[in-house]
Amino acid sequence: VNFICRGDVDFLEFMISVWNVCTCRVDSLSNFAFDMYDLDSDGELSVPEIEHMVWEFFGKGGGGRCLEDATKYAEQRGGAMKLNAFIS
Fold first, then answer.
1. Which phi and psi angles does 17 have, rounded to 5°?
2. Tens digit of pLDDT for each residue in 42-75?
3. Dihedral over Cα of 3, 7, 57, 75: its sign
């Protein structure tokens, strides 16, 4: 994103980034979001990674039902959620 390499993002760079995200297909955005929160790049979202993702969306301690459902789903499957479950 930082094409000029000054250590900050100027308005044009910001707008290009927004354009890139806004014009992505839903499946591309899902893959992007999964990769962004798969912090250890193991191809799964662990319960702590799921918590981190939900808290980013809803704030620390927020997202009650969403967090509950996602962690329960992961725990029933060995403590992780794979990409195909994330995007479905």
1. -65, -45
2. 999 999 999 999 999 999 888 999 999 999 999 9
3. positive
Determine contact, residues 46/75, Cβ cutoff 8 Å: no
Count CA atoms within 13 Å of residue 19 on its CB side. 7
From the list 76, 74, 77, 40, the residue with the least C-alpha distance to 54 is 74
CA–CA gap between residue 65 and residue 67 (Å, rounded): 5
The pTM score is 0.72
Tell me the C-alpha distance between 15 and 40, whole Å. 29
CA 81 – CA 9 distance, rounded (Å): 33
pLDDT exceeds 70 at position 2: no
